[in-house]
Design a protein that fits this description.
Blueprint (H helix, E strand, L loop, with lengths): L5 H11 L11 E2 L4 H9 L5 E5 L5 H9 L2 E6 L5 H7 L6 E5 L7 H7 L5 E6 L5 H10 L4 E9 H7 L10 H9 E9 L4 E2 L6 E8 L11 H11 L7 H9 L3 H10 L13 H13 L1
Parallel strand pairs: 2-3, 2-5, 3-4, 5-6
Antiparallel strand pairs: 1-8, 6-9, 7-9
Helix pairs in contact: 2-3, 9-10, 9-12, 10-11
Length: 283
């Protein structure tokens, strides 16, 4: 059964009474070349994999062909009987009906005796960043995250300081992972077709021992968030607003770190944010 074939998709919809949900951001792939390309780019040969949002299972099939074990987490209960049919041939698959934000990834690893997990997903655009940040912040032994996202968001994930797409999401994610763009996917590759193009990115998780050292992680992320809260204002102004530091003290603090007092957040690297956060923490 070719699960990217539009006739097959329509037949499954009719037989199971399935209707696409705009609320859940459901758009299924109809380009047969994409699922194996994602699976190859994910580099999951012989590994333990968690897939978020399997839909009708076109990517799940490719993951099951390569992975040791796949746990597919699907929020939409109406898709479960469809998946029972489309993925019946695979015995290395478990399907969980739940919200990925409620799933304990570490517990899944323990259940299957695995020390690491790779995550793959075709996420609804409206919840992409919360899910990715939740996975990164969970402390679970995630080795990589390969995900299809809106093209504009992908550009933000891989951008560099002092470029138009660089922002708080970029700096925050780069603390946890190295982001790499794998390939683009046109809107016409989906049914129903979304209004924007997509891209597949891979986040290679940085081991905790190799991450940028910070004295207080909470302050570090607050500094990043504050830096981009009002992009037209200087970092001194934004730090004053967030932490109650006087502009004079803020300017002196930056100067002592070798950073210009007129600097704006979009030109600073994560390492520079860490230096600033440490200075704020000392206060």
């Amino acid at each position: 059964m070719e699960l990217t074939n539009l006739s097959v998709i329509r037949d499954l919809c009719e037989r199971y009474g399935f209707e696409f949900s705009k609320t859940l951001g459901q758009n299924f792939l109809t380009n047969a070349a994409i699922p194996p390309k994602i699976a190859e780019g994910a580099d999951i040969e012989g590994n333990f994999v968690v897939e978020v949002g399997p839909g009708f299972g076109c990517l799940t099939k490719e993951l099951c062909k390569r992975a040791k074990k796949v746990v597919a987490v699907e929020l939409d209960k109406s898709l479960l009987p469809v998946l029972d049919e489309t993925l019946a041939e695979f015995f290395n698959l478990e399907i969980i009906n739940d919200d990925i934000l409620n799933v304990d990834i570490s517990a899944l690893c323990e259940k299957y005796g695995e020390t690491s997990v790779d995550v793959c997903a075709n996420l609804p655009y409206y919840i992409t960043t919360p899910i990715i940040m939740s996975l990164l912040e969970s402390g679970a032994p995630v080795r990589s995250i390969t995900v299809m996202v809106q093209k504009e968001l992908a550009k933000r994930f891989i951008s560099l300081p002092n470029t138009p797409d660089y922002g708080s999401v970029t700096a925050s994610i780069s603390y946890y992972a190295n982001a790499k763009l794998l390939f683009g996917v046109s809107a016409g590759s989906f049914y129903p077709a979304p209004k924007v193009d997509s891209a597949v990115i891979r986040l290679e998780i940085i081991p905790e021992s190799e991450r940028i050292p910070v004295k207080d992680k909470e302050i570090f992320f607050r500094v990043i968030k504050a830096a981009f809260a009002m992009r037209r204002k200087t970092l001194v102004n934004n730090l004053s607003q967030e932490f109650g530091i006087s502009k004079t003290d803020g300017a002196e603090m930056l100067k002592s770190l070798g950073i210009k007092e007129t600097v704006r957040g979009e030109v600073l690297s994560p390492k520079e944010f860490a230096k600033i956060a440490d200075a704020v923490a000392e206060r």
